[in-house]
Specification:
366 residues; alpha/beta; TIM Barrel; 2 domains; 19% strand
Amino acid sequence: MEQWQKDIKDSIDDVETLERVLGVPAEEVREIVKEYPIRITPHVLKTIKEKGDAIWKQVVPSVSEAQEDQSCDSSDPLHEEEDSPVPNLVHRYPDRVLLFVTNQCPIYCRFCTRKRFVGSPGTLTPSELKQVVAYITAHTEIRDIILSGGDPLMVVDMLLERVLSALRAIPHLEIIRIGTRVPGSLPSRITEHLCQMLKKYHPLYMNLHFNHPDEITPEVATACGMLADAGIPLGSQTVLLDGINDDEDTMKRLMQKLLAIRVKPYYIYQADLVRGTHHFRTRVEKGLKIISALRGHTSGMAVPHYVIDAPNGGGKVAILPQETLLYMDANEVVVQNYEGKQFQYPQAVDKAEKNLAFSMVPFHTD
């Protein structure tokens, strides 16, 4: 048994252990955990400083998950099941698809978009992989695939390589991406053997899930460094969460810490409308305020896109602060910088008008 598998075995995954270790009354959350499983790895447990802190709220079940809110009443708010042409595959965008590799995760985030199935038994079978490969092969417009779940790195190297090898054999499939929470919550899973295997399937990218600067520990930095040294570009995905990271200072520290371990901030997500997660949602104004506070006050590399994954399968929509572009006409643009100062920028001459003006200049000969 590898160390990461031992760490999974030693995780908190039942209410009795939860009560013994963290003092959460078992009877208070027993029914919630029946529907929405719990898993807290030893690594994540070490990062919890006190009851109710930013890490605690992400992984410890709460009675709030049982409270109803009609704005968050869907188990599948993004309509992934409706956009699934074959089992485990979601095809929403023209040139890319998403593949569910497993239902297992290193930890079970209480705000998860896929609370409807994560934690239940299930890993992509050979016959299901065959259907996926056949579908992608028949759809030559698909050039990009994201492996997700669950968490793809929760399967052993041999099974993960079986998937990667089958996908890499499709000629028109250019990019393979892996979405994972593992480096930040189960860093022991990132081994030299795994990195050497992944290197064979470039171009390969990873989007890593981080929500709070306390998640960036020395072990996490080492894991991310190993992946980066294997030539894998690393991006981050963060969910805007009430009482966890919904303030400018916390988000700036997170983004700066990510860059320091070679992870490029990519997305900040507005929380999805998932049943049992309404208590994590924030107002969109908060997200806009955070993005405005990042721009100009830290490196542009540390400023991610702020997006809403539109309900009912509408896809990701970037939400941009509006205070930067104040005025625009045919002659000039007026912009405002991070200090609130305004500047005029002259428009380029329209090429059609410029060519017309040039053609009207008299031609002289000696």
